[in-house]
From TrEMBL:
It is a peripheral membrane protein. Its main location: membrane. Keywords: Cytoplasm, Cytoplasmic vesicle, ER-Golgi transport, Golgi apparatus, Membrane, Protein transport, Repeat, Transport. SUPFAM superfamilies: ARM repeat. It is found in: Cytoplasmic vesicle, COPI-coated vesicle membrane; Golgi apparatus membrane. The keyword Transport applies. It comes from Carya illinoinensis (Pecan). This is Clathrin/coatomer adaptor adaptin-like N-terminal domain-containing protein. The keyword Transport applies. GO terms for biological process: endoplasmic reticulum to Golgi vesicle-mediated transport; intra-Golgi vesicle-mediated transport; intracellular protein transport. The coatomer is a cytosolic protein complex that binds to dilysine motifs and reversibly associates with Golgi non-clathrin-coated vesicles, which further mediate biosynthetic protein transport from the ER, via the Golgi up to the trans Golgi network. Coatomer complex is required for budding from Golgi membranes, and is essential for the retrograde Golgi-to-ER transport of dilysine-tagged proteins. Residues 18-466 form the Clathrin/coatomer adaptor adaptin-like N-terminal domain. The lineage of its organism: Eukaryota, Viridiplantae, Streptophyta, Embryophyta, Tracheophyta. Pfam families: Adaptin_N (PF01602).
Length: 697
């Protein structure tokens, strides 16, 4: 069975030390060599070696040394060696070290005394410790606080031994006297900790006696006080009231660690709204005052836990939580938004959305590197707010549409998806959204955003002016036809032929040469002239975003353009009385579609049009040439109905997920229930009646 170990030191097994070499170094007078030998001996012992032959050598040559490093290594060595035999009795040679430890406990150097007292805290052998108790007790009154605080810990460790109460029975009395007179905060904390672990009643009595001065104690002592309060209140919940007052008083101390522990203690001991609100306010203050991102993440986790059990209280603090968005860290911002989105109510939705809008505007400054990602998170948060509370959509949709041309494709896609959903769920905003979309369409540079925007234009341009503006916007963004000139195609064809044949042309110059046998031969000197591949035709920013994307070979977008034009022309036939105008627009749309097919089949682009896009554009051409009522119904009504069905299914799925989260069981049907109201008030102590709850259906 593996033994317990209180010390871990890295050891490189590739360079093993020999016991004889260590022994020789320890017997020498070279102090650095002796230190190195002690380190090697400790490493070997920690890795399973026994080295019994070194003990006497260390007693003779290392024990008398006055060097502080040697003395510290000696104590580490004594800590890890075997001190008992197979029957558990202390080895006789261990008596040799008792006198040395006693001398160390009376040493004039404070460091030697302190590390020896600390060493005694890890000793478990009563036979070794018992002769040292008088020296340990003398150190409780030493003038130096470093020695006093370690002496208190040594007394606590001795008292906690199996026979500790017999060999040091009056330890609680002595430590209580020390606690009353001690001025050093660290030593005072150790004394209170000893009473807390070994004589809890004395610690409680001291705490209640000095209850008015708890807020003036050091933070280390206050942390132990909070630990004592948690322990006492778990065993005796009837006394929570007087301890809650102590916790409330500690919420105003300067130490942030104490404040954090106070908030956690309040939440664990009480579910009263006043206590929970005080804890939540404390967490919000820490969230704003601390600069360490790790601290902020931990505090946000605590707020998230409070949200699940005390949501109504956190709703009032939602604006305080939102201030955490001022941190530049994305993880903090993400957690903050997740918490806030679950706390939104009709009462605070306007304030939350206003704050989110301000944050979106701040991301336009471009000062921070990850503004695009943060903007995407904000857009998603605003989207969620608008879905839950449709009345706020009108205040944010136009602001967000300014980011349709965002360089961050993810945030631009989120905006257009949000616009697509809002225009369906808020019919009153349809006209303003369509007008704004047509005005800003030329700014869109991402193909995914363009396809979604084109679908919106095709589905929601209903009036004559809207349909006309939609067709005109698409034509303007496509630019002048054709998409390429004949000379460009010829150049591309010639270049491709040259590439298919050879990548270079060899030019030879011939001259006669005389061979070894006296005959003549022709020698060629070859030189290579390299030709660069043909330059692809690219659109410029001034030529329209759709044209630019088409000339890069995005024919899926071309198919979407064809479908959008088809829908607009089918609707134009319904709202335009003049057949001449309808025929004109249809002819221009057909010309655009045919030009896209020619572009896809030409050699100007590096790859031809794919079959799916080709079939889709051809279908649109055939439809415009021969339309029927059934086809018109499918294109103008069925597409919208499918989208509405998708939204309803999405909303249903979200509702089911919320219900599933609400039904998560935090306790099993057969868990024990403690009825604290049935505690006996007459009998000293308490009687807890435990009833096993049975699940009934």
């Amino acid at each position: 069975m593996e033994k317990s170990c209180s010390l871990l030191v890295h050891f490189d097994k590739g360079t093993p030390a020999i016991a004889n070499e260590i022994k020789e170094a320890l017997e020498g007078n070279d102090m650095p060599a002796k230190i190195d030998a002690m380190m090697k001996a400790i490493m070997l012992l920690l890795n399973g070696e026994t080295l019994p032959q070194l003990f006497i050598t260390i007693i003779r040559y290392v024990l008398p040394s006055e060097d502080h490093t040697i003395q510290k290594l000696l104590l580490l060595y004594l800590e890890i060696i075997e001190k008992t035999d197979a029957k558990g009795r202390v080895l006789p040679e261990m008596i040799l070290i008792c006198q040395n430890l006693r001398n160390n406990l009376q040493h004039p150097n404070e460091y030697i005394r302190g590390v020896t007292l600390r060493f005694l805290c890890r000793l478990k052998e009563t036979e070794i410790i018992e002769p040292l108790i008088p020296s340990v007790l003398q150190n409780l009154e030493h003038r130096h606080p470093f020695i006093r605080r370690n002496a208190i810990l040594a007394v606590m460790s001795i008292y906690k031994l199996p026979q500790g109460e017999q060999i040091l029975g009056d330890a609680p009395d002595m430590i209580e006297k020390v606690l009353l007179t001690e001025q050093d905060q660290s030593a005072k904390r150790n004394a209170f900790l000893m009473l807390f672990n070994c004589a809890q009643d004395r610690a409680i009595n001291y705490l209640l006696t000095h209850i008015e001065r708890v807020s003036e104690w050091g933070d280390m002592l206050q942390m132990v006080v909070l630990e004592l309060i948690r322990k006492v209140c778990r065993t005796n919940r009837g006394e929570k009231g007087k301890y809650i007052k102590i916790i409330i008083s500690l919420l105003n101390v300067p130490s942030t660690a104490v404040i954090y522990e106070c908030a956690g203690t309040l939440v664990s001991l009480s579910s009263a709204p006043t206590a929970i609100r005080a804890a939540a306010n404390t967490y919000c203050q820490l969230l704003l005052s601390q600069s360490d991102n790790n601290v902020k993440l931990i505090v946000l986790d605590r707020l998230n836990e409070l949200k699940s059990s005390h949501r109504d209280i956190l709703v009032d603090l939602i604006m305080d939580v939102l201030r955490a968005l001022s941190s530049p860290n994305l993880d903090i911002r993400r957690k903050t938004l997740d918490i806030v989105l679950d706390l939104i109510t009709p009462r605070n939705i306007n304030e939350v959305v206003l704050t989110l809008k301000k944050e979106v505007v701040k991301t336009q400054s471009g000062e921070l590197e990850k503004n695009g990602e943060y903007r995407q998170m904000l857009i998603q948060a605003i989207h969620s707010c608008a879905i839950k509370f449709p009345e706020v959509a009108s205040t944010v949709v136009h602001l967000l549409m300014d980011f349709l041309g965002d360089s961050n494709v993810g945030s631009a896609v989120d905006v257009i998806v949000f616009v697509r959903e809002i225009i369906e769920t808020n019919p009153k905003l349809r006209v303003s959204i369509i007008t704004r979309l047509l005005d800003t369409f030329y700014q869109i540079r991402a193909a995914r955003v363009c396809t979604c925007a084109l679908w919106i234009i095709g589905e929601y341009c209903l009036s004559l002016s809207e349909v006309g503006s939609g067709i005109a916007t698409i034509k303007q963004c496509l630019g002048e036809l054709p998409f390429y000139s004949v000379s460009e195609e010829e150049e591309a064809t010639e270049s491709s032929k040259k590439d298919n044949q050879v990548n270079s042309i060899t030019l030879s110059s011939k001259r006669p040469a005389i061979l070894a046998d006296g005959t003549y031969a022709t020698q060629s000197a070859a030189s290579e002239t390299t030709f660069s591949p043909p330059t692809l035709v690219q659109g410029s920013l001034t030529s329209g975003n759709l044209r630019t994307l088409l000339l890069t070979g995005d024919f899926f977008l071309g198919a979407v353009v064809a479908c959008t034009l088809t829908k607009l022309l089918l609707r134009l036939e319904e709202v335009q009385q003049s057949k001449v105008e309808v025929n004109k627009e249809s002819t221009r749309a057909l010309l655009i579609m045919v030009s896209m097919l020619q572009l896809g089949q030409s050699s100007v682009l590096p790859h031809p049009i794919d079959n799916d896009s080709y079939d889709r554009i051809v279908l649109c051409i055939r439809l415009l040439c021969n339309t029927g009522d059934e086809i018109r119904k499918i294109w103008l009504q069925s597409c919208r109905q499918s989208f509405v069905q998708m939204l309803s299914e999405k909303q249903l799925q979200e509702t089911q997920e919320i219900k599933a989260k609400a039904q998560i069981s935090h306790a099993q049907p057969d868990d024990l229930i403690d009825f604290y109201h049935l505690k006996s008030r007459k009998v000293k102590g308490s009687v807890i009646v435990c009833v096993r709850a049975c699940a009934t259906r």
